[in-house]
Write a structure and sequence with these properties.
single chain; alpha+beta; Aminopeptidase; 5 helices; 29% helix
Length: 169
């Protein structure tokens, strides 16, 4: 069984290769490369201690890049998660999220945020199944609250939040 460990800056290149390979089945090579640009090295330079890598003898099998907010001391954010297509549906992402929640709660965080594209129906379903709530947007499309131009013109996003740890804080 693969082991989960803290991410390292030296994982960056391998994670980018995973993104381009793992999303290659649903995107063109250029689209997969563009997706990998959402994870610049700075995330591992500054947030490796809160990011996770699952690996075995053959390499990285899954990763979660997340951080504790420096501006909101009770919040954490999950930025990017990937799972080898051969392991999807086996609880790998759920396990990484659960470990991230546990560590964030231990660090005094009580809320975790995440976002996704409204077109990423799998991600929307996963976050809802993990107990994330949909945050109210400025408009709704097909029952989904959207935050218009969240990541720039035409880049609408679905925003999620989840309470973790001691809910009485």
């Amino acid at each position: 069984m693969p082991d989960v460990r803290q991410a390292h800056v030296s994982d960056h290149r391998a994670i980018l290769e995973c993104i381009q390979q793992w999303w290659g089945d649903s995107r063109t090579p250029d689209q997969a490369r563009q997706l990998s640009l959402l994870l610049p090295k700075l995330f591992l330079q500054h947030f490796s201690s809160t990011s996770l890598v699952l690996e075995d003898a053959t390499g990285i099998k899954a990763f979660l890049v997340g951080f504790h907010s420096s501006d909101n001391e009770d919040e954490a954010y999950i930025h990017f998660v990937g799972v080898d297509p051969d392991l999807r549906g086996q609880g790998v992402a759920r396990g990484l999220y659960t470990l991230f929640f546990q560590r964030a709660a231990e660090a005094g965080r009580s809320k975790v945020h995440a976002i996704t594209s409204p077109a990423n129906t799998g991600s929307v379903a996963f976050h809802r199944a993990m107990g994330f709530e949909l945050e109210k947007g400025d408009r709704e499309v097909e029952g989904l609250p959207l935050h218009s131009d969240y990541d720039g013109p035409g880049q609408d996003r679905v925003c999620f939040s989840k309470r973790i740890g001691d809910r009485t804080r």
